[in-house]
Amino acid sequence: MPTQPSKELETFENPEPGRDYTIRIRVPEFTCLCPKTGQPDFATLHIEYVPDRLCVELKSLKLYVWSFREEGAFHEAVTNRILDDLVAAVAPRFMRLTAEFNVRGGIYTTVVAEHRQPGWQAPPPVQLP
User: Which of 4, 49, 71, 113 could cross-link to 92 by cystine, CB 3.0-4.6 Å?
Assistant: First the structure.
């Protein structure tokens, strides 16, 4: 197989470090295993971040997400682990990870975890007429 899962997240320089802007990434094919039953869990990951000096490279993100396919993890733990790994890689001004898990046992789970750089404030929203 030409590519393999990887825990390495690659980055590149932010092309506009002087501007606050938002990058939104949707990953609809996240899978891991239920740590109790070993059955697959499926989720859509929504990553939103305001980069500082670095941005995450998307192919490495794809391979990183793939690396969880055979790992058992509770929804809360895996969401926070992914956020921690992304924050360690890119040190964003702000990052939010929303993990929307598919139904398991008649229950849907959504886990939202956030990171905020100390001292960073979101700009106020602009209201247009």
Answer: 49
